[in-house]
Design brief:
Blueprint lengths: L1 E7 L14 H6 L1 E13 L5 E7 L4 E5 L4 E6 L5 E15 L2 E11 H5 L12 E6 L11 E6 L2 E3 L2 E12 L1
Antiparallel strand pairs: 1-6, 2-3, 2-4, 2-11, 4-5, 5-6, 6-7, 7-8, 8-9, 9-11, 10-11
Length: 166
């Protein structure tokens, strides 16, 4: 197991390489479509409950090597929102990310800065894992978990997502 503490963005990394030369960075580049998503909360008894199930394919993330990002809503009125992204890797096992943070900033997240699941700097941050694992579908899959936040009627809410690379 290799421990890392570096962020991959558009500038040079500490070792002098560009992010596009880093295998973890290039693995994230591409189009990722939702295959599973659920939102959770802790109820008044302290039990974890499912508050919503997301249908597969309702949205997608698109990550570009230059740090650009596009979020795609794929149902109803199809929409795309642009922004940027950052990836911080804390722990890997081989070429797989075991622990990291994916941060996404768009006009929508900036408008919600400091509210619910968006940090004060306008980034929505997710714990990311399993970047390079290939599933039974033959596609790489990433798992994202949102930060926990208070939102009526629950003191603790969060979302968990699985995306496959297309």
């Amino acid at each position: 197991v290799l421990l890392l503490s570096s962020a991959f963005m558009c500038q040079k990394d500490d070792d002098g390489t560009t992010p596009s030369e880093n295998p973890h960075y290039t693995s994230l580049v591409g189009y990722w479509k939702l295959v599973h998503g659920q939102t959770f909360a802790k109820n008044e008894a302290g039990a974890t409950i499912v508050t919503a199930n997301l249908n597969p394919g309702v949205f997608a993330h698109e990550f570009f090597a230059n740090g650009a990002y596009k979020g795609h809503v794929l149902v109803g009125k199809l929409t795309t929102e642009s922004g940027n992204w950052m990836l911080t890797v804390r722990k890997t096992e081989g070429a797989d990310i075991e622990d990291g943070t994916l941060a996404i900033k768009t006009a929508s997240t900036m408008a919600e800065a400091g509210n619910l699941f968006v940090d004060a700097d306008g980034y929505q941050r997710f714990t990311i894992s399993s970047l390079n694992r290939v599933t039974g579908s033959g596609k790489s899959r990433i798992y994202l978990i949102s930060k926990r936040y208070a939102g009526y009627p629950y003191a603790e809410n969060w979302a968990e997502y699985a995306f496959e690379k297309q």
